[in-house]
Amino acid sequence: MDPQPLFTRRTLDFWDEDSGYHFVAATPDGEPELWSQFLDGARAAYRRFDAEAALEYDSIRDGACTALFFAAVTTEGVVHGGSRALGPYGSGSESHAFLEWSDPEVRAEIARILDAYVPHGLLEVKSTWVEPDVPHRSQLSAGVARTLTYSMELLGTRYLVATSASTAVSRWQQSGAEVVDEIPPCPYPDDRYRTHLIVWDVERCRSERRSRELEKLLASEAAPGFTYMPAQLPLRSLERGDLKDSGGET
Asked: Which residues contact 79 (CB under 8 A, 6 or more apart)?
């Protein structure tokens, strides 16, 4: 049986003890301040690699094409990373990959592959980024990689597609992604990169940790206008026995 959507457009969140971040799932119109922070951080991240054009900031900033986004939020309310999900798609040709691969034969093969996923639900993830030079960055990166895949359960799809530079593929593989070997890598956004087509199948992503974090998300009671209670976050975790007393440090 294909998944059913669990996301009801209210703001969801959970506290990740490994990284010390809230991971918030929301819509751009539900959390406009977080969305603005997310976009500004993504633009700065893409600029660092001289790849800002690939973000397509002007065409995505109104949020209309984004079904939901995940933001990694500090206890002070600052966004340090995240991703956004598009879809579900009605056709494989809706994927952004059609702009990244220019060869007509490759595009036809991408359409053939992705069209087979569409009846079971197909999303796309874009604009994934993580702030550099922050504490626990490795744990933050791992958290962003995990949570982007939670879009499948929240939006009720079995498959998730993305494109990735070769340097980042191993991170997505750790979260369950598989490289689509039938599609050769392309030089996107320019000749410095070898970009691959990757796909997640929710059935290959199952784990105890996923179940636990999704349960936290769905049990959260945040309302639009996400509020931050930094003094309470370590206490909440201490009550569950997840963190040692650290004097308020996470």
From this structure: 34, 37, 38, 41, 71, 72, 73
Distances from the Cα of 108 to the Cαs of 28, 105, 173, 182, in angstroms?
Answer: 32, 5, 25, 12
Going by pLDDT thresholds of 50, 70 and 90, the confidence category of residue 152 is very high
Residue 24 class from Cβ within 10 Å (0-12 exposed, 13-18 middle, 19+ buried)? Answer: buried
| Residue with the larger pLDDT of the pair 169 and 8 | 169
Cα–Cα dist 206/236, whole Å: 27
Secondary structure class of 73 (helix, strand, coil): strand
Q: Show Cβ contacts of residue 170 under 8 Å, excluding neighbours closer than 6 positions.
A: none
Whole-number Å distance between alpha carbons of 241 and 221: 21
Quote the tokens at residue 60.
């995505």
pLDDT digits (tens, 9 = 90+) for 166-179: 999 999 999 999 99
